[in-house]
Amino acid sequence: MTQPSDAAVRAAVRDLRAAAPNALEDAVYAAASTLAADWSAAAPALSRAFDAVLRHAWEGGWQPADVARLARRRLTTAAAECCTAAIVAEARNYPAATLPPRWAAQLGELRRPGGEERPAGPAAVTPAAMDVAAMDLDAFARRHRLTRFDTAAHALTALHLVDALPRIGAIGPLPGAAVAPARPVAVPPKTLARIRALLAKAESTDYAEEAEALSAKAQELMARHCLDEALLAATADGPAPDGPAACRIGVEGPYEGAKALLLDAVATANHCQSVWSGEYGFATLVGFESDLELTELMYTSLLVQATAAMRGAADEHHARGRSRRTRDFRESFLIAYAGRIGDRLAAAVREVTAREPRPEALPVLAAREVAVGEATGRLFPRTTAHRLKGRDADGWASGVRAADRARLR
């Protein structure tokens, strides 16, 4: 049954949609004044409105981590936290068994900083449980010591952000739908544990030679697993395995373009394709499940290593009296590092393939490359190439040297 407070929130959403960018703040304040005057009814109405716009965002291809990341980029800290709380609360509308695995993992990450969310997974919501499942704006106000007006203003700002999201390519099932039978484990746990341990050691060591050896061993294990999987598919009876999947990886600033270039280099070496959406702060990876998992692991590790090397080189650059060019130095460093690492990763894969030839696996790998390309084309029928240019010769040279020290043979 529609209540007057629901109508007031819908009117506020319409006013915010119609407001010009330079008049949006005034529209938020006007709507917040109206809602604060009848807060006991407006607070649950805002929660219901969040549920509606978030569900529309999920149907448009967005996922929890995408929306929370964009909120952190575009909103104040309080408004972004309000948006995250709304995402967590909305997830309780779905039985836990109907949450896709990546969806559940993202919600777990969003719950981690909060402290007030239930430790158990989402449960099915009944009318009697609605108060428990609803977003608690009063608790949010107490946590931030906000007035009702300020709370309404933050909530409306976050609500408008979600309401204005465009449709993007869907990369997985929606929450609440029937979940497909679980796929076999993409990477054997023992292999995955070895790769993670090697990369963790590579990130923590202060010795370039040791980091090189550890990262090289990790990439060799990844390449060998890819060959094993392709060989198994080539000799297996029965229906073909599942096709390519997709996931999104946040690419945070600064130097987002250079970091996206590094992700693309790792993806290419591991039979995936990467499409960067700079406006929204993420890149979409397309590939087979095991390749996606290993690409994300390697990218995360190399980004840690590159950042540490970049800071050390930038400190040395600054000590030479060139601090005014530090930003150009760092960006050029990361661009050169990404390009060089791409060459090194590709060479490592070629060497493993040459050392352990498995001709039966080659047709499978070729078919997978085609399938990944077709899946990427369906998700992104229109893409544009983005050229990055290093502006600092010292930064470029330092980035190449750092990538050589971390090269994967």
Main sheet specs: 3 strands, antiparallel
Structural class: mainly alpha
Shape: globular
In DSSP terms (H or I, runs of 4 or more residues), the helix count works out at: 16
Contiguous runs where pLDDT drops below 50 for at least 5 residues:
114-133, 236-240
Q: What is the ordering of alpha helices and beta strands?
A: HHHHHHHHHHHEHEEHHHH
Q: Give me the side-by-side strand order of the main sheet.
A: 1-3-2
Proportion of β residues? Answer: under 5%
Report the mean per-residue pLDDT as an integer: 80
- Number of DSSP strand runs: 3
- Rounded to the nearest angstrom, the radius of gyration is 24 Å
Separation of the first and last Cα atoms: 66 Å
Binned, the helix content reads 55-70%
How is the secondary structure organized here?
Blueprint: H1 4-18, H2 24-36, H3 39-59, H4 64-74, H5 77-91, H6 101-111, H7 130-133, H8 137-144, H9 148-163, H10 189-204, H11 208-235, E1 245-250, H12 256-269, E2 273-277, E3 282-287, H13 289-319, H14 326-355, H15 362-379, H16 393-405
Antiparallel strand pairs: 1-3, 2-3
Structure in a nutshell:
The chain is mostly helical. 65% of the residues lie in helices and 4% in strands.
Question: How would you explain this protein's 3D organization?
Answer:
- By secondary structure, the chain is mostly helical.
- It is built from 16 helices and three strands.
- The protein has helices at residues 4-18, 24-36, 39-59, 64-74, 77-91, 101-111, 130-133, 137-144, 148-163, 189-204, 208-235, 256-269, 289-319, 326-355, 362-379, 393-405; strands at 245-250, 273-277, 282-287.
- It has a three-stranded antiparallel sheet with strand order 1-3-2, with helices on both faces.
- A hairpin with a 4-residue loop joins strand 2 and strand 3 (282-287).
- Helix 1 (4-18) packs antiparallel against helix 2 (24-36) and helix 2 (24-36) packs across helix 9 (148-163).
- The longest helix has 31 residues, at 289-319.
- The protein is globular, with a radius of gyration of 24 Å.
- The termini are far apart.
- The model is unreliable at 114-133 and 236-240 (pLDDT under 50).
